Known about the structure:
alpha/beta
Amino acid sequence: MHIPLEAGPTPQPREGDMDAEALRHYGHQVVDWIANYIQSVHTRPVLAQVKPGDIQDMLPSHPPSQGEEMDQILADVERVILPGLTQWNSGRFMGYFGVTSAGPGILANMLEGAFNVSRMLWKTAPAATELEQVTLDWLRQMLGLPAPLFGMIHHNSAITNVLAAAREFVPGLHIRQQGLAGRKEMPRLRFYASEEAHSSLEKAAILLGLGLESLRKIETDDAYRINVEALDQAIREDLREGWWPFAVVATVGTTSTTSVDPVESIADLCERYGLWLHVDAAYAGVAALMPEKRWVLRGCERADSLSINPHKWLFTPFHCSILYTRRPQALRATFSLTPDYLQNTEGRSGQAINLMDYDASLPHGFPALKLWMTLRYFGYDGLVANITEHCRLARLFADWVETSSDWELLFPTHLSVVCFRAHPWAIQNEERLDHLNERVLNRVNASGRCFLSATRLKGRYTLRLAIGNLRTHEEEVHLAWNELHTALRQELGATPTLWHTLRQGRLRLLSFSDAPAKPNNLLP
């Protein structure tokens, strides 16, 4: 198909790469820009202040016919790209899970781009393969997990790979060789997770051809943990009805509340029924770095596999999801497929590991570099200090919520996420409360001064404040609290509400204009 090109000047087509001097010049310029951006990111609107289509309208509709100067390209990064970004790297980003692309990881990404290697075979990047094994074993030790554990880094596809391996080991199915389509004898496969489990499970079921009906969501208890008795009953029911159970996914740190499923009890069930146990500890797993929080991984040593995402709470840039497993041979039996052009005979007497044998995707770059540099830069003590501070800040915010008469905590704050909502005394209707909180959140986010997210807990619209960014300090948490109060005042207007407290034996009616600015002393 012919692509129309813009008419342009008549310089000669650019041949060859940027020369070393130009790379050095613009490299320095980009590093300076990045440093200034990180230093001033808190001054930018957190939520992108654009409408759908704004960025497209700022870009040409046709590709350039001639090469453009880097000065203009970099200028357009600031003019076009930056305004269209929600600032995940801001300390005022407290939605979903707070993340940080810390300096060591940013520099590592630059180095990875320069090396441009793929560690599919050992020989294609020996340092990338072996550094990954060493770095993941460092983290295993930091988390108190037992040896030996095989580990590798994924972009974010660990659960899909694990379920494929678990399915392959259902006796007599031979999915790898015979597939799923057109087989009359194929049983209906079933795997299980709590109703609070991450939506990546549904996507994995779709991708693997299992279908959404293959995932059975199990009810949770009052603490939003999977109900083990209900899980046992579901497995027995499915067996009677002709389903073939093959795996359970337990969650350590659910997305909505950061609840931790009872892994030890689930492991007992999996052993009884011969099911693969995977633990999704994507967010909360790194909390085990803190000695007092090591309980979050209790029982995980019995799991067949475990995933942890350093790009969530370990200050590493995105696309760093770790899969640990006690059964690497199961992954290898599922995915190992080496054509002639990728045969590998190098290595020390056959000891070389080819990581492509344990994964469905090709290629992978050098993902361990950013994690290795991050772990070395902070060290164990530095990582623990930062994660501990995030938990303190979350607990501080939760205390403010609990001492306010117009807000309420909807779940205990054990880690760095706070689940809460506005609940003025005068409003008791749940539907009205849902609408009020949704409007409050929209006002807060639209202001651009901070960003929060929401979920639903037992049907109630719930606000979530997630702390995990290295640039989130007490000042940013105060700001979020004040922004929430401002939004609530604006939603309720001038109508007085009952800020009630018994002070000197009398009930006081206070308007929102009476609210003191100090967030931890709301009642005068």
